[in-house]
Amino acid sequence: MAALRSKKIKYYFIFPSIIWVLAFTIFPLIYSLSLSFFKVRLGKPLTFVGLFNFGRILGDYKLVNSLRVTLVYVAVTVTIQVILGLLLALLFHQEMKGKSIWRALLILPIFCTPVAVGYLGLTLFYEEGGPVNSILMSLFNLKIPWLSSPNWAWVSVLLLDIWQWTPFCFLVILAGLQSLSEEVYDAAYIDSSSEWQIFRKITFPMIQPVVIIVLLLRLIESFKIFDIIFSLTGGGPGTATEVYSLYTYRTGLRFFDFGYASALSYLLLAIVMVIVNLFFRRIREVYE
Amino acid sequence: MAVVKKKSPIFNVIRFILVVIVVCWALFLLYWGVVTSLKPPAETFTISGISIPFVQFKPTAENWKVELSTRESRSALINSILVAIIASALAMSLGTPAGYALARYRFQRIKNRDLTIWFLSQRVLPPVAVVIPFFLIMRTLHLLDNIFALILINATFTLPFAVVIMRQTFQELPPELEEAAAVDGCSDFDAFRKISLPLAVPTLVAVAAICVAFTWNEFLFALALTSLKARTFPVYLAGAEDTRGVQFWFIATRTILAMGPPVVLALFIQKYIVRGLTFGAVKG
Predict the structure, then answer these.
(1) Per-residue pLDDT tens digits for B153-203
(2) What number of other Cβ atoms are within 10 A of residue B18's Cβ?
(3) Which residue of B has its CA nearest to A19?
(4) Residue A193, by phi and psi: left (phi above 0), alpha (psi -120 to 50) or beta?
(5) Are A252 and B237 inside 8 Å of each other by CB?
(6) How far is B85 from chain A (nearest CA, A)?
(7) CATH number of the domain located at residue range(s) B64-277 in this protein
(8) Do B2 and A182 lie within an 8 Å CB cutoff?
């Protein structure tokens, strides 16, 4: 058995990657952790401040705001994307002409540069005569303050994000559906169960593992949201759409408060780790 | 397919209409970008609604000519291309042997599965968590505004793709060929290089394409670590608003130029997208 081979060469194969990750991920993380105990100013010596930066987290209302914005954003977009993705996958999971072409077109949003999506959104949701408002105006005599009202700015971010990532959920769930064996269905149809019963009792339980993977991947990626918000709203109006990444980025690289920004990144890392851990057993099974 | 009971023709028509609507929805943003980039600047705001070319206005290539003849635009494009290709090549050449080792050998101290998950866990890390240390490190190394810094970072973030998907690819190749070669006195390295690697080339190319697309789309690090000289196209795009006001025809031309390469790449790797984007957890 090949798996039993245990020669030295395997280390030559894998060590470059391990060292690379240690150097470019683990080292920066440790560096960042140590920074969080200091007051860091460019061109000046570091001042040790102990847990001061972490203490600041407790009284930072802007942080609380960005955390709230991020959590709501993640919960809402991921839920909608997974549900829509599932519905679309069911829609496509039938015989139809040109299916692979339709599918190929439908998944193009996944590959669109997110920051560019945000800028296109800017032109799309432009309030005076942008295409969305001009259509709404002629149909319902409605003018929506897409980017100037905090709530609507939120909606426009959500719309773009859902537009971009629903196809991902769709694609993966469809792949899950197509891998199901057909015999089960044949049996179910002989028993003439209703469509809804077949979905609830057979299809859904069988694709549940795939749905969980989609959910996990979307959760992880959603916490990283930065680009679309940077370009579409810049976190505004006010701080209505200032997500955690954007707040951390600004703290560190606009206001050069590196120590505090490092403390902030560790909080985000902790939150994401907690969520991923909820799925850990499932992840281990996949890579058995 | 046996999956489906015979559906009535009406059902099929409704479904077809739904499919068309969904696809139009998915393509609308791209359509809007292309159309806006073809509008004469003077008419940008006078053409209303979804702006059907030839019907509502006469398309012009003027914006594209201006954009492509701008020196900054070209240099940003070149930076993007260099970073994407070199970073992906680096990630693939590090990750392919690692994936092979995880597929074909057994590691004792840390199990193969846990090593794989360790590589994967790099993708969990929110990039913003390391952008500050990277900024300070690159500043110390005098690599700010240098594409070399972006190449290193993007290779790091795409490496897990390479390792995990190549591992799966090698696992699916039958080991018998290599065993036969070993009996004939072929060394382990040659078994990898001459037997397994050539068989894995299609996946390798597809994974590299996914890495290129991801690197091309990367924005946060490019924004933090570059200014004028080394900026990639997305960062150049982000500067557009400040420098030229709300000039939609420029924004549209640039967004389409930014999205074009990854979108076109995606069309060529259909078969591998599911596996690629789910790190092999779901097979397409």
Answers:
(1) 999 999 998 999 999 999 888 888 888 888 887 888 888 888 888 888 999
(2) 14
(3) B94
(4) beta
(5) no
(6) 16
(7) 1.10.3720.10
(8) yes
Q: What is the pLDDT of residue B244?
A: 52
In Å, what is the CA distance from A49 to each residue of A37, A56, A121, A266, B152?
6, 11, 43, 17, 32
Q: Which of B15, B98, B223 comes nearest A91 by C-beta?
A: B15
> Number of A:B CB contacts under 8 A?
311
List chain B domain ranges: 9-60, 64-277
Q: Is B241 a residue whose pLDDT tops 60?
A: no
Query: Whole-model pTM?
Result: 0.89
Cβ within 8 Å of A, B 27-56: 27, 29-30, 32-33, 36, 45, 48-51
Q: Containing H/E element for A48?
A: strand A47-48
- The CATH number of domain A51-111+164-286, selected from 3.40.30.10, 3.90.550.10, 1.10.3720.10, 3.40.50.2020: 1.10.3720.10
SS3 content of chain A, % helix, strand, coil (to 5): 75, 0, 25
**Phi, psi of B57, rounded to the nearest 5 degrees:** -160, 165
For residue A131, whether the previous peptide bond is cis, meaning omega lies within 30 degrees of 0, is no
Q: Name the residue of chain B whose CA is nearest to A170's CA.
A: B274
Please state, as a whole number, how many other Cβ atoms lie within 10 Å of the Cβ of residue A86: 24
Cα distance between residue B251 and residue B244, in whole Å: 10
CB of B152 less than 8 A from some CB of A:
yes
Which two three-digit tokens encode residue B87?
Answer: 């970073």
Number of C-alpha atoms within 13 angstroms, CB side, residue A30?
6
The complex's ipTM works out to 0.89
Residue B137: CA count within 13 A, CB half-sphere? 20
Q: Which chain B residues in 3-32 lie under 8 Å from chain A, judged by CB atoms?
A: 3-5, 7, 12, 15-16, 18-19, 22-23, 25-27, 29-30, 32
Residues in chain B: 284
Those residues with Cβ within 8 angstroms of residue A67's Cβ, 6 or more apart along the chain or in another chain:
A244
Q: Which of A28, A108, A129 sits opposite B48 (nearest CB)?
A: A129
Neighbours of A166 (CB within 10 A): 28
B85 in contact with A, Cβ within 8 Å: no
Q: A155 to chain B, minimum CA–CA distance in Å?
A: 16
A116, B3: Cβ pair inside 8 Å?
no
Write down the domain spans for chain A.
1-35, 51-111+164-286
Q: Note whether A224 contacts B128, CB cutoff 8 Å.
A: yes
The set of residues, in sequence order, having a beta carbon less than 8 Å from that of A93 and lying 6+ positions away, is A174, A177, A178, B3
